[in-house]
Design goal:
- It contains 11 helices and 11 strands.
- The protein is an alpha/beta fold and 346 residues long.
- It folds into 2 domains: 175 residues, Rossmann fold; 131 residues, Rossmann fold (3-Layer(aba) Sandwich).
- The strands form 2 sheets. The chain has a 7-stranded mixed sheet with strand order 3-2-1-4-5-10-11, sandwiched between helices.
- Helix 7 links the parallel strand 7 and strand 8.
- The longest helix has 22 residues.
- The structure holds 6-O-phosphono-beta-D-fructofuranose.
- The site of 6-O-phosphono-beta-D-fructofuranose has 10 residues, from loops.
Length: 346
């Protein structure tokens, strides 16, 4: 049932790892809330920490200009876990959040974050706060949505990096290993590996055998392939204390004697301006969040289902990981093209 929205106060916070597109989402929320519904928009600093310390600013229409293309989050972020006791005071921070939510006079709170943040959002909703979750992360590992904003940009950045490795690998006739982010999942590795023409793609969801990888690379040399590109997700199985890229390139050298170099792409995947697709997705998510609030619907995470922007109950998705299904159609087609995933002879 629609509620009267004029003068409603909605808070926005961004928590967890930052990613391109967050500011586009904030802009989508802000512009829709102000222009369409006459709401007030409160930007909360540094994720849940800002609610605990009551650090916030009112976002006016003018402040929302120039944000669409801006990387990072103008509000700042943190990885503070409100349902864990404060490391300094030992006090359970969720009670403070509930008290401050009321004292600031919020009618709703939009929580922009990954799966850990959505788990916290679900708990806050269960505590009776009017919460809407927006799924963001370069990892694309938030259960309950086809895709998170941040992912398309990270894949584009990683793909561009892989493209560049081809020329130097070819000049030196080398094996080039590149490690991409993705936390415990292989979405960035799979998509950028295929887009960047990777020969071997290793993801956490498919256990690999280094002997299979070694034999595959030796076979490429025998077939007069001048070089090979190996794309690995940071979360693959490996010994502690060594990066995935270092472990894989070391193993290749030991097992094949082939000249190998490694690159860890790291935080560039999280930086800079979002792609057009991420700007559109983030804008759609932000606008939809406000529509739900205007309809008096809460305890939901906005999501993409095919071409539709809709929502799903937070308690069904909060904290759940979306892993790459080993039978994913991209994997099946890649195998037929001779790409090696390290688990079977090619
Ligand atoms: O969740 C995004 C992400 O970049 C992961 O891919 C990565 O493993 C993690 O954040 C790094 O965390 P931090 O930014 O705390 O170093």
């Amino acid at each position: 049932m629609a509620v009267s929205t004029r003068g409603m106060k909605i808070g926005i916070l961004t928590a967890g790892g930052d990613c391109p597109g967050i500011n586009a989402a904030i802009r989508g929320v802000g512009k829709t809330a102000i222009a369409e519904y006459g709401m007030k928009v409160i930007g909360i600093s540094s994720g849940f920490r800002g609610l605990i310390d009551k650090e916030f600013i009112e976002l006016e229409e003018t402040q929302l200009s120039g944000m669409l293309t801006l990387g990072g989050t103008i509000l700042g972020t943190s990885r503070d876990k409100p349902f864990k006791n404060d490391p300094v005071t030992g006090v359970n921070m969720s009670k403070i959040i509930k008290k401050n939510y009321k004292e600031i006079g919020l009618d709703a709170l939009v929580v922009i974050g990954g799966n850990g943040t959505q788990k916290t959002a679900a708990k806050l909703a269960a505590e009776g706060m009017n919460i809407i979750g927006l799924p963001k992360t370069i990892d694309n590992d938030v259960y309950g949505t086809d895709v998170t904003f941040g992912f398309d940009t990270a894949v584009s950045i990683a793909t561009e990096a892989i493209d560049r490795l081809h020329s130097t690998a070819n000049s030196h006739k080398r094996i080039m290993v590149i490690e991409v982010m993705g936390h415990h999942t292989g979405w960035i590795s799979l998509y950028s590996g295929v887009a960047g023409g990777g020969d071997v793609i290793l993801i956490p969801e498919i256990p690999y055998d280094m002997d299979i990888v070694a034999r595959y690379l030796e076979k490429r040399v025998k077939n007069k392939k001048a070089y090979s590109i190996v794309v690995v997700a940071e979360g693959i199985e490996k010994p502690k204390g060594i990066s995935a890229a270092s472990f894989i390139s070391q193993s290749i050298r030991e097992k094949t004697g082939l000249e190998t170099r490694e690159t860890i792409l790291g935080y560039v995947q999280r930086g800079g301006s979002p792609t057009a697709m991420d700007r559109i997705l983030a804008t759609r998510y932000g606008a939809h969040a406000v529509e739900l609030i205007a309809e008096g619907k809460f305890g939901l995470m906005v999501c993409k289902d095919g071409e539709t922007i809709t929502s799903v109950p937070l308690e069904q998705v909060g904290g759940k990981l979306k892993l790459v299904p080993p039978e994913h159609s991209i994997i099946k087609k890649s195998r037929k093209m001779g790409i090696c995933f390290g688990d079977r002879k090619v």
